[in-house]
Design goal:
Length: 833
């Protein structure tokens, strides 16, 4: 597309077109996902918590030249954008609306069947299963993962190209007035309404209003498919169908439906669906037993019947349905590797997303992709795999293992990359030497038929069943909540000390670096050294510098907290010996404004000025800071305010006397950010709030707990009334009881203080007490009356409320609970859609 064509579509308020002959083909809304600068058009989308305008200059420096920017952007930024001499900039009133207009125009260029899916649940699974079922006959374009929002839908539709003969897109709304825009973008010819539930009820006056909003997607459809067994949905659609001109194709248990589900028979791992259509009966087996999967599969069955497929062929294809992975997993691998498991789906767009994630994973320099053939892409093989090879090179993939006959035929596309090829997954497992994988990041990306879970089992580090699951998407959501409270010029320092509050410092630091925090903070130098060795390049402050670590601090470009004249003198001596003769080492000056832990006071300012003004001083202050002692406690607000006032006074004196107006000042911690916004100054320090914990309920509702522990029931035992349990028999069954033994004990960080009924875990959705003495590797849970079996999942602190309850039971704080979890509890990192 050319600038002239874009202008005709967007009708911008004003524009700055420096290169009218340029073209672009890629839409970019996330600056971190840049692949090809010369072909990208960046939409600088403003949100409640951030704005894409902050990253325009960085993208320009990387070669991007086309930008769509809000006219309401901060004037300072707008003035700077005018100095970007080679940029084409379209200034619009609504950046998201402009993105949607462009996608809508693009969609109108294709006259193909398009399935539009909406509903409260099941959209993504239905969409992916439709792609599975129809891919043998069609070249389908579909939404990547759960791209169903006001931004995700236009990005999905932009993927359409001349090779596609059908498309499947999902659409989600959270309030009124949103679906019309999505309808104009998707322009569906076939509609599926999965169901109606409680999601987003709070944003609508009634359930009827929510259904009416979702039905706007289908006002120009040839047909709408839905289940009449959902009485409320059926009633509401029936009321509005005539007015909206909808033709309905229904399924359900009533014989009045087009497709009748006459019965279901559930087995251990599959369900037999007896289905009637046009006076014929069919037995369709799906490899799932849960109600949601049966409902989702029937939506797909109804679609295939509508499209004219024979019932026997539908049954054959449904038997091959595979689970839909809703998140990407980061798992500790063999030989020091990091395994990124995204092995449940494969298309060019989801591959790009996964490669982008791996590119920004800095733990290992070497990166490997294990990938299968594409099942369908709408492209000829050579063109497809040449594009894949180019993507791999752009994203820094150093080794490739290709599995499938098509990849074997196209191996020449991967010349220049260390590559191995196998026709089947079994052949790879038999012939490939997996011991060769050493200290690298490995991305698994395969079509379902290749069963890459077998490769994942080989590559995964084996440990005991207890894991700590760390949700990096929740971490980013929490980060963005706090970021939304900051002024545009306020920087953000994230605390990753104590192994990121138990979550794992390298993986968390990588996610924070990827999401543009300004600083990281560790407690000791060895933590910072490890981050540097794992590819973290952000500035890192060390809060407890020790004399023996001074050399490493300088060598690894860490920045120490200088809190006393003794540390200042000793560190300067090292700096003079180790640093470059004409270089200065950055340091941070700590003031003690009331906590009385570490730091200088106001009387020390003259001495600090003399020390830093000495020609022999090789240190240069980067910031001055202090710690708030009671920022979360309203009863101590006067004390906190005195701390802030004292810090303002002392830091200003230091800045003035050093003639350093650029010296950064920061005092706010997590609670301070929310309770004392007027004291943001130049930077804030985000700690426990980043991990989803806040003492204020009004803040906690905006946060999501990042870490929780999953384990499983090792054994169930029936305990007679009066029998003791555990060491010393300190818990006696008060009644005939059922006790679950779970594999986590005090060696894993589970304090003995929560035994004897004080602490609780979640089993089958119920809170169950930990009884008896906690052992080194195991503990006992009273599950009397709970419907559970050996091997069932057990959750420890699944949310912030449960974490707080466990901390109270142990007479401590959530910080201690999280940081006490031992390294032998394997961390599994997930990246949700």
């Amino acid at each position: 597309m050319t600038p002239t064509e874009l202008t005709d579509i967007l009708h911008p308020i004003r524009q700055k077109v420096s290169h009218p002959d340029s073209t672009f083909s890629r839409l970019l809304t996330d600056s971190r996902s840049l692949v090809d600068a010369s072909s990208s058009l960046f939409f600088a989308i403003p949100t409640k918590r951030n704005t894409g305008a902050r990253y325009v200059e960085d993208l320009y420096s990387q070669g991007v030249r086309n930008f769509v920017i809000s006219v309401d952007t901060d004037d300072t930024l707008l003035q700077r954008f005018e100095t970007l001499q080679e940029a084409n900039i379209w200034y619009v009133s609504d950046v998201v609306r402009s993105l949607q207009l462009l996608a809508s125009q693009h969609r109108s260029c294709f006259d193909i069947p398009v399935v539009g899916i909406t509903g409260s649940n099941g959209k993504t699974i239905c969409k992916d299963w439709i792609v599975q079922l129809l891919s043998p006959d069609h070249h389908l374009c579909s939404s990547p993962k759960s791209y169903n929002s006001q931004i995700g839908v236009p990005l999905s539709v932009w993927q359409l190209n001349a090779g596609h003969d059908m498309a499947v897109f999902e659409a989600g709304v959270s309030t009124t007035g949103e679906m019309e825009a999505l309808r104009n973008i998707i322009q569906p010819t076939i509609g599926i309404f999965t169901n109606i539930g409680q999601a987003h009820d709070e944003n609508f006056l009634s359930r009827s209003q929510k259904v009416a909003e979702k039905l706007h997607l289908f006002t120009r459809c040839q047909v709408l498919i839905y289940c009449t067994d959902q009485k409320e949905l059926h009633s509401l659609i029936s009321e509005k169908a005539v007015a909206l001109g909808l033709h309905c194709f229904t399924w359900g248990s009533s014989p009045e439906n087009d497709v009748v589900l006459t019965s279901t028979q559930e087995g251990d791992s599959q369900t037999l669906l007896q289905v009637a259509y046009q006076q014929h009966s069919f037995n369709i087996t799906i490899p799932f037993v849960d109600r949601a999967s049966i409902e989702n599969a029937m939506q797909c069955v109804a679609l295939l019947f509508y499209l004219g497929y024979d019932g026997a062929e539908i049954a054959r294809r449904c038997l091959q349905l595979a689970p839909v992975a809703m998140r990407l997993e980061l798992i500790e691998g063999i030989n020091g590797c990091l395994l990124v498991n995204d092995s449940y789906s494969l298309d060019i767009n989801s591959l790009g997303i996964a490669l982008d994630f791996v590119q920004h994973e800095r733990q290992h320099e070497r990166k490997t992709l294990i990938m299968s053939d594409f099942q369908q892409s709408g492209m000829v093989e050579q063109e497809l795999y040449s594009q894949v090879a180019a993507m791999m090179q752009q994203k820094g993939i150093t080794r490739f293992v290709g599995i499938g006959e098509a990849l074997c035929r196209c191996r020449q596309c991967f010349e220049g990359i260390d590559s191995s090829f196998y026709e089947t997954t079994s052949q790879c497992l038999q012939q490939h030497d997996f011991a060769l994988f050493q200290h690298e990041t490995i991305l698994l990306k395969g079509a379902r038929m290749f069963r890459f879970e077998r490769i994942a089992q080989v590559l995964q580090y084996k440990s005991h069943e207890t894991i700590m699951e760390v949700d990096l998407s929740a971490l980013v959501s929490n980060l963005n909540y706090y970021r939304s409270l900051l002024q545009p010029t306020t920087r953000l320092m994230a605390m990753v000390k104590a192994s990121s509050y138990g979550a794992g410092k390298v993986e968390v630091a990588n996610a924070l670096q990827y999401n543009h925090v300004d600083y990281l903070t560790v407690a000791y130098a060895d933590e910072g050294v490890e981050l540097r060795r794992q590819g973290i390049t952000l500035p890192i402050m060390v809060m407890n510098p020790e004399e023996e670590s001074f050399g490493d601090i300088i060598r690894y470009q860490l920045e120490p907290d200088i809190y006393s004249f003794r540390i200042l003198q000793l560190f300067n001596q090292t700096a003079r010996l180790v640093s470059q003769p004409d270089g200065f080492v950055p340091v941070h000056i700590e003031f003690d404004t009331g906590m009385h832990r570490l730091g200088f006071d106001g009387d020390d300012i003259p001495g600090l000025v003399r020390a830093f003004s000495d020609p022999q001083c090789r240190l240069r202050p980067t910031s001055t800071f202090s710690h708030l002692a009671c920022s979360e406690d309203p009863s101590m607000d006067d004390f906190t305010q005195r701390q802030i006032d004292r810090f303002r006074c002392w830091s200003q004196q230091l800045k003035d006397q050093l003639h350093r107006p650029d010296l950064l000042c920061h005092i706010l911690n997590s609670s301070g950010i929310t309770r004392f916004p007027e004291a943001q100054m130049d930077m804030v320090r985000l700690g426990i709030g980043l991990y989803g914990i806040a003492p204020q309920p009004e803040v906690q509702r905006h946060l999501t707990s990042v870490s929780h522990i999953r384990t499983r029931i090792s054994q169930l035992k029936a305990i007679p009334e009066g029998d003791p349990v555990g060491y010393n028999g300190r818990w006696v069954a008060p009644r005939p009881s059922t006790i679950a033994i779970i594999p986590i004990g005090y060696a894993d960080g589970l304090t003995r203080r929560i035994g004897y009924g004080r602490g609780r875990v979640t089993v089958a959705g119920q809170q169950c007490p930990i009884v008896g003495s906690i052992c080194m590797d195991m503990c006992f849970v009273d599950v009397t009356g709970v419907d559970c079996c050996e091997g069932d999942e057990v959750l420890l602190f699944p949310d912030a409320e449960a974490l707080e309850a466990m901390a109270q039971a142990a007479d401590t704080i959530p910080y201690e609970v999280l940081t006490s979890i031992s390294p032998r509890v394997r961390r599994v990192y997930i990246q949700s859609d």
